[in-house]
Each structure stands twice: as structure tokens, then as C-alpha cells.
């Protein structure tokens, strides 16, 4: 059975609903290269099918929509690349194809003309946010848990995360990137990563309403129709710790220097469990990841989404070639000793100058694998 299931349900007046279900519950629907390719192909087909009025993206099982990308596959490719002597970062063929396919899919979702409803139930992390964030209509439930936990595995918030997090209110995006702190439904909506809170047990009601809605040939009108359906079923949701601590986060992350931000987070005196866990994750995480996340958010704040994906692609290839990414996966998932040996080992070593090499493109802007996304590429750095 395929790791992505596709279905079309009949609506009214000959219109249909396209449903894509990530179907790898044993890996919490972790996104593999094959899954990303299948999704991208089907979305393109549905975009060209006049009978498809709306697309639904969901995950199998009750634990996760998508817990992230294919870390095991990426780890194997990084080990093979390094054992072969390294060299040009594009020589890791799997990583090159994985990131280009994933980012192209994410960008397609962001720019899809037809409405996409993403049902973000359960765990939505890393690559899962990449799929969900660009959907026109994003639902969270009482068990949704969104996070960019890449600092724990030596990466950084990619999949457009640099662009998304730079736009979170009250400097919250910087805090989330540095700490991997999780968001519940209320905070996900506040952060701009979700739109509607609907309890999981109301999903059948939503699907039934989609089948009975008055869809048309106009994508714009169908966006409005989907909004109306969800608003008729959504419920109010309470704010979470990101909002409760907004003033504190704005203060500590308002510093201009990364060292000052990290120092201010470390100095937080509060018994709140969410803040404590965030501080612990930052101090145990990869200093290089903190630096890259910081530098990327600064750049992404003035870039288009397409240029952000192009920039992230270059940085991700560098991370796969000579960064802490392999070591982070080893410690967490392979050897499971949870004792990563980060290099650089301290924030003092992870300087802006150290990070500069991660932004060096191995090709011209015209030859970039994602050169055709959006408008003409801008300067990468």
C-alpha cells in the first residue's frame, strides 16, 4: 500500500473533493522523498481538473498529521557522502533531491489556486508544518502540537520556516526557532500557522459539509465557501503560553545580538513548565543551529517566500554536508544516546563569520534547482 492515499469524493453538481492522506502511521506520517513526489504530482493533476473544487490534506491515525521529514533516509545519505570523501555539497544526490522536491511541494501548496484544507490533528512538526503552513485553510484540534524542533537535531527551521517565523508577532518566531517550543491550537492560530480550531470528533461533520457545499467553477468563490463551512463548525479556543508570555518573549528576543538573546532566555526566572522546557532545549541544542536560525530569520524578513526557499535549499545542503545534522540524528534516532557532540560546541564559536560559508551557493542563481519558483531569484545572502 502506498504511503500516500488519494481519494475523490462526490460533491454537488458534479464537483468533487480531492483527499490526500499521508499513510505512514508507524513513522507518524514522516514525509519521505517518495511521499513528497506523489503529493506534488497529484496536486498538479488536481489543479488541472476542473471538477475538483477543493483539496483536503490529512494524516492517517490519531497521533500525527506529519511529524517531520525522512531523517533516517537523510542520515544514510549523509554518512555515504562523508564516507565517499565529501566534496561538492551537491554530490549528496539524495539530500539534493529530497530538499528540492520537498520545498517545491511546500511552495506549490502556498501558491495553489484552489482551496486546500489541511487537517492538522496531533503532531505537526518540521516538514509537517511545511505542508500545513501554506494551505489556504488550516485546522487545528484539541490534540494539535506544532513545533520547529530542529535545534535538537542540528538543523534549523527550514521548509519556509525562516519566512514563517520571522512574521510571528512579538518576536515569538525567534523564540520558537531557538527553543523548539511546542504550540497548541490557540497559540498556533496566534502565530499565523493555523486558522480554525475544530475538535477532532467533528471531522466527519466537516467532510459531510464539504460534500454538500455549493461549489462553483471559481476558485475564489470556493475559497469563500470553504471558509464559511469551517466558520460554521469552528469553536473558540483559549490562548496558550506563547500568548501568556508574549511580553517576556518580546523583551528577551528583542536584542540585536544572538548571544544576548540566548543569555536573556537562560536568565528567565519563571516556574512555568513551558518556559523551563524551552530554556532546557535551547541550552542542550546545537549552537550552530541557533546561529543559522537567527541569521536566516534576519534575511527572510526582507525576502519573498520563493527566495526564502532558494536560500534554505543552499543552507540545507551545507548542513547535510558538513554541519551538525548527521550528529543530531545519530544521537536522537540512530544510537539514541542523546549525547550529541556539537561542532561548534559553544555559541561563542558559532559566530556570524562561521555561518557565512553555509550561504555560499554552489551554482549560479539561474542554475538553482528552484530557480523557477516565483519571480527571478534575488541575491542569496
Written as H for each helix and E for each strand, in order along the chain, the element string is EEHEEHHEEHEEHHHEHHHHHHHHHH
Radius of gyration: 20 Å
| Number of helical segments with 4 or more residues | 17
Oligomer classification:
single chain
Q: So, the CATH homologous superfamily?
A: 2-enoyl-CoA Hydratase, Chain A, domain 1
Task: List the domain count as a whole number.
Answer: 1
Briefly note the structural class of the backbone: alpha/beta
Q: How are the elements arranged and paired?
A:
Elements: E1 4-10, E2 16-22, H1 33-47, E3 52-59, E4 64-66, H2 71-83, H3 93-110, E5 116-120, E6 123-125, H4 127-133, E7 137-140, E8 145-147, H5 161-165, H6 172-179, H7 185-190, E9 196-197, H8 203-212, H9 219-233, H10 241-244, H11 246-252, H12 258-266, H13 273-284, H14 287-300, H15 305-322, H16 325-334, H17 352-355
In short:
With 381 residues, this protein is an alpha/beta fold. Helices cover 46% and strands 11% of the residues. Mean pLDDT is 96; it is low at 376-381.
Can you tell me about this structure?
This protein is α/β, with parallel strands linked by helices. The chain has one domain: 2-enoyl-CoA Hydratase, Chain A, domain 1, CATH 3.90.226.10. Helix content is 46%, strand content 11%. The protein has 17 helices and 9 strands. The protein has a 6-stranded mixed beta sheet, with helices on both faces. Strands 4-6-8 form a 3-stranded parallel beta sheet, covered by helices on one side. A hairpin with a 5-residue loop joins strand 1 and strand 2. Helix 2 packs antiparallel against helix 3, helix 3 runs parallel beside helix 4 and helix 8 packs antiparallel against helix 9. The protein is globular. The relative contact order is 0.13.
